[in-house]
Amino acid sequence: QVQLQESGPGQVKPSQTLSLTCTVSGDSIGSGTYFWSWIRQPPGKGLEWIGYIYDGGDTYYNSSLKSRISISVGRSKKQFSLKLSSMTAADTAMYYCARVSGDNTFDYWGQGTLVIVSS
Amino acid sequence: QSVLTQPPSASGTPGQMVSISCSGSGSNIGSNTVNWYQQRPGTAPKLLMYSNNQRPSGVPGRFSGFKSGSSAFLDIHGLRSEDEAVYSCGVWDDSLSGVIFGGGTTLTVL
């Protein structure tokens, strides 16, 4: 059974860089079969795709966030990470990691981690 | 304002059928397959339908999906109380070169 688990700080200060990690079990990013994605959801709002990465290093980012984000795969191929710079209150959201299969289908999701941007 | 338009709310009584729409354009729904996600309160989204009308293992046959032109629809037959959730559509947009989601439809079972 594929499982994903997000980890990272629950709060960051404005202008800081957010770093989140997603730990994958029951599958390996190194299998080269799937993309691995980050998605966020501001409180009371809809889902927003952040970007995704393939094991080979290919990345695809939301154009509205592209200048601020970086997604990478850990050496163990069991983790992938998100860095989002210049955080503002508008970045306050639940952040989810997910596996991507087929035609941009998010088939497995982590439980999410709430990130609040506040001084 | 999302590129994909969903009604903010829908409702029905137990046993009824409800249909949730997702309206887009030629650069997204019109040229790519649509996925649907169910999000119960306080939980992560769950894949409900993929490739317009395919149900993942474990999703009841009461749920069905279809696409017509630049719109997609999720039908829920035999409504049950556990169907209360937010339903969101998602699709690749060729113009934006990215994945987009609808704003979500909150389904209430009266």
What does this 3D model show about the protein?
The complex is a heterodimer of chains A (119) and B (110). Chain A has 119 residues and is mostly beta strands. Helices cover 0% and strands 52% of the residues of chain A. In chain A, strands 2, 4, 5, 6, 9, 10 and 11 form a seven-stranded mixed sheet that branches. Chain A has a four-stranded antiparallel sheet with strand order 1-3-8-7, with no helix packed on it. The termini of chain A are far apart. The model of chain A has no long low-confidence stretch (mean pLDDT 95). With 110 residues, chain B is an all-beta fold. Helices cover 0% and strands 45% of the residues of chain B. In chain B, strands 1, 3, 4, 7, 8 and 9 form a six-stranded mixed sheet that branches. A three-stranded antiparallel sheet of chain B has the order 2-6-5, with no helix packed on it. In chain B, a hairpin with a 6-residue loop joins strand 3 and strand 4. Chain B is globular and about 40 Å long. The mean pLDDT of chain B is 96. The chains are: A mainly beta (119), B mainly beta (110).
